[in-house]
Amino acid sequence: MNDLIKQEMMPAIWCQGCPLGIILAQFANVLAELGLSKDNAVIVSGIGCTGRFAGYMNMDSVHTTHGRAIPVAEGIKTANPALNVIVVSGDGDLLGIGGNHMLHSSRRDIDITVICINNELYGLTGGQLAPTSQIGAVTLTSPQGSAVEPINIQGLSTLNKKHFYARTTPAHVQHMKKCMSEAISWKGFSFVEIRTKCITRSKSPLFKTGCDLLNWLKTEYKITDENRKLKDNEMGIIKSG
Ligand SMILES: Cc1ncc(C[n+]2csc(CCOP(=O)(O)OP(=O)(O)O)c2C)c(N)n1
Predict the structure, then answer these.
(1) 54 occurs within a structural domain
(2) Is 119 in the pocket of ligand 1 (CB under 6 A)?
(3) For residue range 209-222, what is the model confidence (pLDDT) as tens digits?
(4) Does residue 94 lie in a domain region?
(5) What whole-number distance in Å separates Cα of residue 16 and Cα of residue 13?
(6) CB of 123 closer than 6 A to ligand 1?
């Protein structure tokens, strides 16, 4: 295991089979490959299962209040522009309660990277409906299925003339690493959406185990190298400088 992860805090508290462990390990590998460490990088997370990322990294990190990871990251970057500031947080945190911050930091093109682990619900608090939940999704607070379409993350992330948006999954490790690496190297605001599901809270019979989930993601999503709007089941990188 890479030294950028606090060995003494492993194993992580995440549920057995949760892909957050894969994402953490590969995130640490990407940082190491880019030469990032406690000397030149800071990690910021909000609250949630994904929010544990900040505490697990062996570098300066901030576990902020729910929804406020982006403004804290923006403050750190403003105070010390030499630092690489990376937010890793959940979809509820970044696009629910913190959605307004995402809109304005991206509009101001603040040079930070936001990695959003989108499990399409509020994982830590029991699996409530999130703005990212798919239409028809059965959750703790939508027992008859969500009635509305999820928020359009790709659309929001590519609203501004200059933008960087990537979509990937933890079942496509090389692609996921490429997305994180390019996003961190991008000068300006960059957003990576890592699509996954919560195997504990999801009511879907399709993802009872981590293995089921990885196999499902592998068959569901296809990589495109084209720099254009992604279809629902596509992964790729859309950028415009
Ligand atoms: C201001 C505030 N509102 C609500 C909460 C309760 N809360 C903690 S984590 C969380 C949801 C986390 O969901 P998400 O950001 O999607 O992350 P996940 O747990 O799914 O990784 C909520 C609602 C809180 N801690 N603070």
Answers:
(1) yes
(2) yes
(3) 999 999 999 999 99
(4) yes
(5) 9
(6) yes
Over the Cα atoms of the chain, what is R_g?
Answer: 16
Does some domain include residue 2? no
- Ligand 1 mean position, distance from CA 54 (Å): 15
Q: Quick one: tokens of 205?
A: 């019979």
What's this model's pTM, rounded to 2 decimal places?
A: 0.98
Structural domain of residue 213, as residue ranges?
7-240
| pLDDT above 80 for 224 | yes
Look up residue 66 and give its two tokens.
């729910």
The atom number, within ligand 1, closest to the CA of 48 reads: 19
Total number of domains in the chain? 1
Out of 125, 128, 139, 151, give the residue to mutate to test ligand 1, the one with the largest number of ligand atoms within 8 Å of its CB.
125
Mean pLDDT over each residue of the chain, to the nearest integer = 97
Which two three-digit tokens encode residue 49? 């299962």
